[in-house]
Amino acid sequence: MSADITVVLVHGAFAESASWSGVIHRLTDAGIAAVATPNPLRSVSTDAQNVRAAVAGIGAPVLLVGHSYGGAVITEAAVDNPNVVGLVYVAAFAPDHGENALELTGRFPGSTLGETVRAYPLADGTNDLVVDRDLFPGQFAADVNAADAAIQARTQRPIRDYALGEAQPASTPAWKTLPSWFVFGDADKNIPVEGLRFMAERAGAVTIQEIAGASHSVMVSQPDAVADLIVEAVGKLSA
Fold first, then answer.
1. How many CA atoms, within 13 angstroms, populate the side-chain half-sphere of residue 32?
2. Domain named AB hydrolase-1: which ranges (predicted)?
3. For the whole prediction, is pTM greater than 0.85?
4. CA distance 93 to 147
5. Domain 6-238 top-level CATH class
6. With contact defined as beta carbons under 8 Å apart, do 197 and 204 qualify?
């Protein structure tokens, strides 16, 4: 591949772009350009449009990396997008057509997220959802040091409930046509680890890396491992 690959990082629900800071630092040290693009967390369709716009602004080639709900967004944003050359899922959803984040979470045992979520009504009849700030560290970031986890709790971006229940739009999700890599922790309390394994295996991932003891906030607690997998993906795609 003639042009250098740019990594575009997409955060998920209850997170924000700074959650990628440790990963970006390590990618920069490896000589890889990386950008964390904002994710409004309003709907899969509109959030994917925002990512497509970011990708178009960068040009080709781009490796999309999504965390959590951001996985559904990159899955849609990469469809029929000639600028995107691969996908990395970081404790992330990789839905098939018609699936949604809520259904995939409930299909497998182990998630305790629902017990910690608080809803705030919006004018259109939907709700913004946040993780209770006092419960956030244990639910979302149990392996992150307490001070940093508390900051994550207070800087989290709310997600509109519609986004979590929206069926994946594309008839052929991008992981069926592009190479993918998956990394996640076996102590994830948001997305059941059995579900993460299922999605990774279904996608025929090039590499599936499961990190012992890592929480849902694996890109914060294990930035070396996450960055190393991205570097691996860039290397293979550049060969």
1. 27
2. 7-228
3. yes
4. 28
5. alpha beta
6. no
